[in-house]
Structure formats: C-alpha cells, structure tokens
Structure to design on (208 residues):
C-alpha cells in the first residue's frame, strides 16, 4: 500500500532532491509543504501543495492528517533556536495526531564526528553556526517518536553514492550528493533501511 508522506521544506535543495527520488523510485503520495509552495508544479496524480508556516499549529495539523511519515528538510539561519522550535512544533502536532515516524535532516558535525583530516572546522565545537542543528537534534532525540536523524555534509550535485555512518562513528568525508540524500530517504521510507531512533551520517565514499 502506497504511503502518504508529508515533506516539509519541499522547495529547498534537499527537499527537492527527496521529492524527486520519492516520485521516481516509490509509489508514495506526497504533500509538499513550503512557504513558497505556490511556486512548485505538482504531479497532480501523486502530489498536493500546502503553503504554510510550520509554526502555525492549526495549519500544520491540517496538512499532517492522514500522513504515514513526516520528512523534514527544513533549515534555518540566524536564530540558533529556530530549528529546535520547528522540531518541537512538528513533534507537538505529530503527538496530537498519534503519528510516530519522523525523518529529520540536521547536519554533519553536530557530534564532532568530522576528523581533522576531513575538516574539523565544521564540527559544532568549532563552528557556532552548527548549534541550531545540534539543538534541533536534541529535541528530536528527547521525544518519544520513531525518528531518524540524517546528517549530510555539504550538498553537491553528483551521482548516488553514499557512505552511511552512525552516531559515535567518524565520517570519512564532508560532502554529500543531493541524489544520495534522496536515495537514503527512499530506503528509509520503503523499509529497506532500518534506523529507528538512529542518527545517520551521509557522505561520499573516499576517492582512491
């Protein structure tokens, strides 16, 4: 049976990659959430649009009803607490509707998992711009949801080729192809990849 997916941040770089992969590699039905949803052209057979602010609880509840999985490709800039507030708003709405499955994108470096040989300047201890990702991850990890955190590096174009690491493991690179984020999303949503209450680092294989 085809799943219903709520894709938050559908018009961004990562969200667009996830959307493309889900349309081409699954039979899922997508609800595309964005402040700029009216700029998207939906596949009328499998997609619908929801233009809203995630902080608007009633609008989020309306969009979330009937969904099986919530996928967040949201980002924030400036305010170090904004992404954590977005995460809490999502959790609150999901709990109200008794939804469990959340896939939430943060960023590589929140656990200081980037070794010096790769570029440790992007670890949260060295880069205050990472704090909002860490705070959001902690909010998600403190919830009762069946979550998976995704930690890509710098998003770049390129083929689907990814190395997956788990929390506590160093990464071997600091870039991730957009298509790889999409393929991991597909594997999680179809159940091919199991990562319940897990945190996955995504990076490209090391070139030899």
């Amino acid at each position: 049976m085809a799943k219903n997916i709520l894709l938050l941040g559908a018009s961004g770089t990562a969200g667009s990659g996830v959307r493309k992969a889900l349309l081409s590699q699954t039979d899922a039905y997508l609800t595309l959430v964005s402040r700029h949803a009216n700029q998207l052209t939906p596949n009328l057979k499998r997609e619908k649009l929801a233009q809203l602010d995630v902080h608007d609880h009633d609008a989020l509840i309306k969009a979330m009803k009937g969904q099986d999985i919530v996928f967040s490709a949201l980002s924030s800039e400036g305010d170090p607490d904004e992404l954590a507030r977005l995460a809490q708003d999502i959790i609150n709405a999901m709990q109200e509707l008794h939804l469990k499955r959340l896939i939430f994108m943060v960023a590589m470096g929140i656990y200081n998992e980037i070794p010096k040989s790769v570029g440790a300047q992007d670890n949260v201890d060295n880069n205050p711009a990472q704090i909002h990702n860490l705070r959001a991850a902690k909010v998600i990890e403190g919830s009762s949801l069946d979550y998976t955190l995704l930690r890509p590096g710098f998003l770049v174009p390129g083929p689907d080729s990814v190395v997956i690491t788990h929390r506590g493991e160093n990464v071997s690179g600091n870039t991730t192809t957009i298509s790889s984020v999409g393929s991991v999303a597909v594997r999680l949503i179809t159940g091919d990849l199991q990562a319940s209450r897990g945190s996955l680092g995504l990076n490209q294989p090391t070139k030899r």
User: Anything to note?
Assistant: The chain has a mean pLDDT of 95. Strands lie at 4-8, 29-34, 47-51, 69-72, 101-105, 146-152, 154-156, 163-166, 175-177, 198-203. DSSP finds five helices and ten strands in the chain. The two ends are 42 Å apart (CA to CA).
